[in-house]
Design the sequence.
């Protein structure tokens, strides 16, 4: 069973080996699987910005497909998506998902391998944070093997691995569309969610 360290090392190698555009496709695919979590939080919290993350991500996919830079209105919308305050783990995850969307916008202007890695790692971190609430896994490095082997982390490792495998091919719009369609509507949390008292 690969560990988180093994997985992050494979991402670093992948980002160093492929084109910048393919690396951004990988990062955008990771954010796609964060979007359903953000949307559900908006629905449950009453936030009026349910479509905000989707609009940002769609603009990034537009840049990937056509090199059309996201407009200023999209960039300025980032701040309004943030919760007024971080009150629990779920809200903290929302803040990090919005930060990931902001990183994606940055990647359309200036490439950074560190930002690509950070976006992908956020998914694993937020899955692990959820697992501490819905399982009996305790916090501490001696329990990391149980986190790595949980089905939610195994599934996300696998999705990222398949994306990296396919994205070792030369960039094409068709390839980007394939990666996007495969990730749309898939949640990193699966059917799980934070308990009401989290």
Sequence:
């Amino acid at each position: 069973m690969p560990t988180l360290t093994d997985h992050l090392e494979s991402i670093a190698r992948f980002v160093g080996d492929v084109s910048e555009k393919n690396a951004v496709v990988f990062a955008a695919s990771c954010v796609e699987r964060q979007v359903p979590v953000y949307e559900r939080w908006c629905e449950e919290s009453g936030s009026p910005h349910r479509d905000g993350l989707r609009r940002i991500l769609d603009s990034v996919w537009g840049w990937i497909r056509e090199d059309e830079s996201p407009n200023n209105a999209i960039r300025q919308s980032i701040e309004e998506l943030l919760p007024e305050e971080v009150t629990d783990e779920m809200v903290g995850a929302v803040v990090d998902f919005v930060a990931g969307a902001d990183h994606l916008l940055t990647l359309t202007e200036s490439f950074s391998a560190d930002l690509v890695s950070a976006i992908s790692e956020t998914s694993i971190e937020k899955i692990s944070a959820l697992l501490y609430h819905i399982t009996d896994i305790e916090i501490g490095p001696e329990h990391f093997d149980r986190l790595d082997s949980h089905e939610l982390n195994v599934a996300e490792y696998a999705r990222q691995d398949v994306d990296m495998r396919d994205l070792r091919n030369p960039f094409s719009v068709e390839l980007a569309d394939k990666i996007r369609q495969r990730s749309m509507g898939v949640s990193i949390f699966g059917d799980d969610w934070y308990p009401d008292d989290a």
The first helix runs from residue 4 to 17. The chain has a mean pLDDT of 93.
